[in-house]
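Is this the right way to post structure tokens for a design question? Let me know if I should format differently. Anyway, here goes:
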């Protein structure tokens, strides 16, 4: 007997995916049809529906109103996250002040490594101590692995920052949360920024659908328009107890 496939999670881009793009960013409409469909999806999939958008959370709230409440939202390309009605971004931001003490123990000021505390990151500059490069790199990589952070190498600096700079990070973050964890993500998007998200979904055992031709080569299937996306989501929801096959 084959084990039951993991349940489906829907991760959706907004502009150009759920609604047609207008001449200006303000020319986009959240129709009643779309609101109803998203509400139905959230209900049928036990909350495993997320919007993954380059827009800010405030922008999305202004456009969607309360119909966005039952949905997990990764906004600003993943820099902002709202889950279970709680703004979680940046959930790990307080980690950087806490890491300061560890840095100071590892690299005392006599070492020449300059530590820069940022809002969402911690920079370790080794310009004054180039010989410490490998040690700084190893330390930041270890902390990143330990705390789920990302290492951003720069000009004589290694910076620890929060994940979430792209939609792939957003997908991985969402898929670690209940009720998403253990499910199979289906990501739908239309633009270049959606490519890392599709790749993340596939790496997690899911799949990706492109809307229009721009990123068709990166997806498992292509839908022609936002209208076709809504129709497809309706079909998926009707069969949501079965494995989704693109
Ligand atoms: Mg888009």
């Amino acid at each position: 007997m084959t084990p039951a496939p993991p349940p489906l999670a829907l991760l959706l881009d907004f502009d150009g995916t759920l609604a047609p793009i207008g001449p200006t960013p303000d020319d986009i409409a959240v129709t009643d049809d779309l609101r109803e469909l998203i509400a139905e999806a959230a209900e049928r999939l036990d909350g495993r529906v997320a919007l993954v958008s380059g827009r800010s959370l405030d922008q999305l709230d202004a456009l969607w109103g309360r119909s966005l409440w039952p949905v997990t939202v990764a906004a600003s390309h993943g820099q902002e996250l709202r889950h279970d009605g709680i703004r979680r971004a940046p959930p790990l931001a307080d980690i950087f002040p806490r890491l300061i003490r560890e840095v100071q123990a590892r690299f005392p000021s006599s070492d020449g490594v300059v530590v820069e505390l940022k809002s969402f990151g911690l920079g370790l500059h080794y310009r004054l101590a180039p010989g410490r490069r490998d040690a700084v790199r190893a330390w930041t990589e270890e902390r990143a692995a330990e705390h789920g952070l990302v290492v951003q190498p720069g000009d004589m600096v290694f910076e620890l920052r929060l994940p979430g700079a792209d939609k792939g990070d957003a997908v991985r973050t969402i898929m670690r949360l209940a009720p998403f964890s253990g499910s199979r993500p289906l990501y739908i998007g239309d633009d270049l920024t959606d490519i890392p998200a599709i790749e993340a979904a596939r790496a997690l055992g899911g799949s990706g659908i492109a809307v229009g031709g721009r990123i068709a080569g990166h997806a498992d299937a292509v839908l022609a328009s936002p209208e076709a996306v809504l129709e497809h989501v309706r079909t998926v929801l009707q069969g949501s107890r079965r494995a989704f096959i693109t």
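Format looks fine. Someone answered above. Worth noting: The chain has a mean pLDDT of 89. Residues 39 and 67 are 7 Å apart (CA to CA).
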